[in-house]
Amino acid sequence: MNVAVVGTGYVGLVGGVCMADMGHQVVCVDIDEAKVRTLQAGKTPIYEPGLEELLEKTIEANAISFTTSLSEAVKGAEVVFLALPTPPGENGAADLSYILKVAEDLGPLVDHYMVIVDKSTVPVGTAQMVREKIAAQAQADFDVVSNPEFLREGHAVHDFMQPDRVVIGGSSERAVQSLRELYRPIAHEGQIIVMDEASAELTKYAANSFLATKVTFMNEIANLADLLGANVEAVRLGIGSDDRIGSKFLQAGIGYGGSCFPKDVQALLNTASSAGYEFKTLQAIMDVNARQKQRLIEMAEKHFGDLRGKRIALWGLAFKPDTDDIREAPALEIIHGLLEKGATVVGYDPEAEANTERAFAGKAGVTFEEDMYQAVSGADALFIATEWNVFEAADLARLKAALAQPVVFDGRNIFEPSDMARAGFEYFSIGRPVGAAEPKKV
Ligand code: NAD
Questions:
Q1: CB-based burial of residue 404 (10 Å sphere; 0-12 exposed, 13-18 middle, 19+ buried)?
Q2: Under 8 Å between Cβ of 346 and 314
Q3: Distance of CA 187 from the midpoint of ligand 1 (Å)
Q4: Which stretches of the chain score pLDDT less than 50?
Q5: How many A from CA of 86 to the centre of ligand 1?
Q6: Which of the residues 140, 250, 402, 405 has the least number of beta carbons within 10 Å of its own beta carbon?
C-alpha cells in the first residue's frame, strides 16, 4: 500500500520504517529540515535499537523516502498517518495545535480517497475535529480513524512489528478494511480490535494511566517497606506471581518519566474534569510520582545531613534504558534538586548525555563525562537514576576505588544489597533493607 507518515519522531519514524519493511511504499514528512536531511542520508536522529539497520535496509530497497513537503508525501497515498506531538498544553490538556494545523494543511490535498489515521495520543473527540478541518477543504472522499500506538521506546521496533494488539477506532467499514490490509503482515488473527472512535481514543489514555498507577502503587509499597523493614523485591515476587496482578511494571524506583506517562495521566485527568468527573486516583498518582522523584535526594540528605559542597556522580540521564529520550526524566529533577541543595553533579549516560548537556547548557555546578568511571572519580556518592545494563555490569572494585566515599543511592535497585555490603559500599536502594539478601524461589 502507499502510505504517508506525517511526523518522523519516535512513533512516526519507527512506524514508517517498519511499514516499509512490511512491504508498503512509505513517504515520511517532517517540518524539521535537519531531521529530514539526516534521514535521507540513512541516519536516525534518535537512538532506538535496531532502527538504523532497518532504515538502511528499507532505503536500499527504495521502500521509504523522506521529504519536507506534505503535498509530495500524500500524493497517491492510500493511508496517511498523523504521528505528531501532543504535548501538555494549558491546564495539562493535550495541545492539539500540531494535529489540527496538519489537518488544515491536509484538507486541500485530499484529491482522492484516503484514510487519515490518528496515531498520536489524542483526547476523545480529536478524530472528529480532524475530520471537520479536512472536510472544510477536501475535494474527495476520506475517512478519519483512531489507531493509537502502544510501542515502548527502547523496544519500539519489536513492539511495532510484534504488537500485543492493534486498536482501530472508526465506523467506516472501508477505512477499517484498509487498515486491516495494512497491518496484515504483522497482526495475527484476533489481534486487531475494532471499536468506536471515542473508545479507541480513551483506550490509549487508560493503558498509560493504568501502567503509571501500577508503577506508582509499587513505589508506595516500597516506601512503606522502608519504614517497616520489609523488602519490596520479595513483595514484588509474592504478588507478581498472581495471574490477576501480572509480573510486569511492578519494579519499584524513583518514579516514571518520559514523553508519555506524565502527559497522558495529566491529560486524562483534564479530560475527566472537563466531563465533570473528579478522577481521584489520577491526581494521587501524579502527586506520588512527583514526590518519588525526590526520593534519592531525601535519602542522601538523611545520610550526609547536608549536601552543600558534596560532589555527586549521577549514572543514568535518560528516562529509561535503551533510549536517548530525557523528556520528564527523573534525572533532570535530581540534577535541579542537587544543585539547589548546593551540591555539584557529574552526569553520565550511554546515549542521553548530549541531550542532557544541551538542556543544562550554561548551568553552573553540573558537568558531564563520557566514561562512567570518570564520572564517579572523586565523588562523595553515586546516584543511579536509569537501569542501563552497563551499570548492572559495573566493576564494583573499580567503582569503589574511584569514589571518594563508597556511598551509592540506587534509584532503580540494580544491585543486590548483600553484594554491595560485601563489596564494602554503604548502599541505599528503594524499598529494600541495607544488606538484604535476594528473595528466592525454591
Ligand atoms: P516526537 O516529538 O518525537 O515527534 C514528532 C515529530 O513531528 C517531530 O519530528 C516534529 O518535527 C514533527 N512535526 C511537528 N509538526 C509537524 C508538521 N506540521 N508537519 C510534519 N511534521 C511535524 O513525538 P513522538 O514521541 O513520536 O510522539 C508522537 C505522538 O505519539 C504523541 O502523541 C505521543 O504521545 C504518541 N506516542 C508516543 C510514544 C513514544 O514512546 N514516544 C508511544 C506511543 C504514542
A1: middle
A2: yes
A3: 23
A4: none
A5: 7
A6: 140
